[in-house]
Amino acid sequence: MSIRDRREREKEQRRNDIINAAEKLFFAKGYDDVSMNDIATEVELSKATLYLYFDNKEELFLPLF
What we know:
This protein has helices at 3-29, 36-43, 47-53, 57-61. By secondary structure, it is mainly α. It has a single domain (3-64), classed as Arc Repressor Mutant, subunit A (Orthogonal Bundle). Helix 1 packs across helix 2. It is elongated and about 40 Å long.
């Protein structure tokens, strides 16, 4: 397996981790009461990193359905 393959796999895993954290918070607190900062904290990433994967909260909400 190449380094490129490993990086892609890690990137996909990080994206899935973000979606899972968002789902957990949306169902616990409600969509309107969750911020991108809340999601970043939950997944232990910086908010800037979170925005590398998703442009906004709405884009993060779509994969859940």
